[in-house]
Amino acid sequence: MPMKDGAAAADREPVAGAPYSWFRVLAVLLLCLAAAERGEGQAAAGGTRRRAVDVGVILDRATWLGNVSWACMEMALEDFYADARHASYRTRVRLHLRDTGPSAVDAASAGVDLLKNVRVQAIVGPQTSTQAKFLAELGNKTSVPIISFSADSPSQSSSQTPYFIRTAWNDSSQAEAIASLIQKFNWREVVPVVEDDDSNTRFIPDLVGALRHVGTRVSYRCKIHSSAGDDEIRGAISSLKGNWTSVFVVRMSYQLALKFFRIAKDEGMMGQGFVWITAYGLTDIFDVVGSPALDVMNGVVGVEPYVEDTDRLQDFKQRWHEKYIKEKPGTKLNGPILSGLYAYDTAWALALAAEKARLLDSDFMPSETNNGSTDFERISTSKASEKLHDAFLKTTFPGMTGTFHIQDWKLLSTNYKIINVVGQNRKVVGFWTPGLNTSGNLKTNADLYTIIWPGGTDKVPRGWLLPANKTLKIGVPFKPGFGKFIQFENGKATGFCARVFEEVIHALPYKVPIHYEEFGDGKGESNGTYDSLVYKVYLNEFDAVVGDITILANRSLYVDFTLPYTESGVRMLVPVRDQRKKTAWTFLEPLSADLWLGAGAFFVFTGLIVWFIEHRTNHEFRGPPASQIGSVFYFSFSTLVFAHRERIVNNLTRIAVIVWLFVVLILQQSYTASLSSILTVEQLQPTVTNLDEVIRRGDYVGYLNDSFMPGLLKRLKINESKLIPFNSPEEYNDALSTGRVAVIVDEIPYLKLFLSKYCHNYTMVGPTYKFDGFGYAFPRGSPLTPEISRGILELASNGTMAELENELYGGSGTMCPDKVDSQTSSSLTLRSFLGLFMITGASSLLALVLHVGITLYDSRGHLVIACSQGSWHGSLAILSKIFHEPDNMSNTPDTDETVIANGDPIVESPWSMSNHIIENFDSYTDTGSPEEEGTPGREVSNQDPGPPSFAYMHSEG
């Protein structure tokens, strides 16, 4: 109706209204054209005309990851362009989604379609490594960046695929975090359990390298195909149960992981003693699957990138949940998984890079025309893609997961958090940072929070378990000759080696079932050498070898040895003989020739000193020359037995004699002790002292049969034809005692056992050739090796090992000394008594000097008169008379006795003594009338009030 009314009106005023209507229409058209021109001018001047940058997205919308990531990318662009800071941006990123499913071929086809038909400047989102491998090659050919926030890098290096960029943290840093956690608990062996696809192409080498760096080995890898059924998974779990290792690192998809842990729990591998560590990616399973995963993964420890829980992140999670609930009603997800946050930051980074690239219209033109025969060859490239690639690599901004920064074509890694599944919850128990490694705090070094391990215990598992229903098969060597070390009787091993092993096994905090088997043929012979027995461990025919197995370098190439539990080294065993020789002149041996001569010289010297001092005042040292010489020698040598009878009257002589008697006493006692040793103590010396002597003489050398000795002796240049093997201590004794061999070369434990029985006839000599002693052999990497080694150290520290050794050697190990140590000369030398001789010589000379000085001082007046006369002959004569003539003024005991014996106790005055002296001198010089000799009046007629001088009396003669 309105239209009809309007039409009628128009019809009623066709002429009058026509000019006005046409004018209005023309005016509107003019206004529109002006506005359009003004808008184009403003766009040219201000740059507000927006340029679309096409970006392809390849996802599998049938997966949680695909759906979550797509929603996050859409929200990222909405948030980016709604931000007032980006309102003036003249580029707009447009996403072109291709839902390809998991097929790598479909992903490659979608990539070709996007590049050829849509002419995208970048492709985002190949979810798997297989898809990324194809698309990375496509990006290299077309110079179009291929950006993935979930797939690992392909097998080629970054330099080979420069257009493939990962906007998620790389696996290398994750491998370091896992290795640091394993090092924290000192686990030495780990088994990776991974999905058999391209996602682990780079992760496994990175993990193995990181574990090797912390001293942990990977001896076994368990791979499970993504399409594996329950039976295949159960078989893989059975193979894990058959290994000693109980520490596993798991990395697989959600679906396969849920199935794997469910079967592992049914097989009893989620109990106490096991350790399960999940890599990043699998930790998202709890957000995706929820309770089913938590029920079967209790006690699991996982690592995932640390994302700070900011207000911006909380707001985004809430908005994302509202958006996702509308699109996917009934979803179990409460928020985006970590890969979704990476997708959000990737879209945001693309929007920033598109603006920073300053793209021009000419950049979008094809740079070259290809007329290839295939669609792949007809894809054109443009400068816009290369500019976008370069700008994207330089883009940095604060993202949802932290600072977004690409380094080496990967998102720069920072920190990881360590989570622990406990019940229906996940709790953070620690962190990993490049600076602190594993710690309970992000900024300081601290202990981890308590971890609840599988089985509900907080006790840290030791990292290995005995395989299910496993009894260790222990090889025992056949050793009939030295049964005290090892012997197999009635299905049981006995002897020192077996006792030490069982002491250690019983001390372990867990039970280790063992079963012994002898390495023999059942007919009294061995099945081979010790090397053959050790090689059986390498072939897994034995789980260990217990016996007198020497630790050797060539054997350690095939097995691991515990610490040695016996003394180490190789020495020679030789007979000993008594070197004592008893002859008529044996009594001279205690003192060396120089000591005999020195002692004799001091005897004579001391006698002369005593005679010189005593002969003026002591009549026992006077008389004819022959008598005086005899007195000198008799006195000096009689002091040797303290039988001298001469009386000493001078104090200086007494001092010299006392010192000399002290020296004689020491000399006598030393002589007596040395002579007793020579006559009574055995002087046992080895018949051979070194192997060079044996080689030079061409003697035969014995060794223990089935040992490594032949190789050692050949290296020591001993002719093989001179080697004779033996099997028992009795054969050793027989060969050495009969002279069949000159020496036995063997390890010290065998020799000590031999000497415990034949101690007095043999000894160990020569250098000790270094070897590591006896040890127990286990397979390479066996966790029992360090356990047994620690047990051996404990036995050594608590004294148990010493008790077992005393039982082995019968307590005589320390009672049979090494006889070569006492092979020293028993003769005493002059050097040993040089100090004593110097003391007695100095004291005797001092006494002599003092005596001479005192005598000269007392006669100084006479000497002065003699010297004043100028006759040196007279001076010498006076000196001679002073030191030669007797000093009768001294009241010697003999003189006193003579006076008493006369019966005339007349006390002589000094006058009368002087008269007597005058008479004596006159009797020698005056040959006059004999009657004057007995005339008493001569004595009375002397009226000189003082006695004549001694010099005058001598001058009279």
Automatic annotation (TrEMBL):
Signal peptide range in chain numbering: 1-41
CDD domains in alphabetical order: GluR_Plant, PBP1_GABAb_receptor_plant
Domain Ionotropic glutamate receptor C-terminal stretches: 473-811
Disulphide linkage map: 759-816
Keywords, sorted A to Z: Disulfide bond, Glycoprotein, Ion channel, Ion transport, Ligand-gated ion channel, Membrane, Receptor, Signal, Transmembrane, Transmembrane helix, Transport
Parts of the chain that traverse the membrane: 595-613, 833-857
Source domain of life: Eukaryota
Region feature Disordered, mapped onto this chain: 922-957
Keyword Membrane attached: yes
Lipid bilayer topology: Multi-pass membrane protein
Cellular localization per UniProt: Membrane
GO biological process: monoatomic ion transmembrane transport
A GO CC annotation given for this chain: membrane
General function of this protein: Glutamate-gated receptor that probably acts as a non-selective cation channel. May be involved in light-signal transduction and calcium homeostasis via the regulation of calcium influx into cells.
Assembly notes: May form heteromers.
Family stated for the protein in its record: Belongs to the glutamate-gated ion channel (TC 1.A.10.1) family.
Protein name (Swiss-Prot/TrEMBL): Glutamate receptor
Species the sequence originates in: Urochloa decumbens
Lineage of the species this protein comes from: Eukaryota, Viridiplantae, Streptophyta, Embryophyta, Tracheophyta
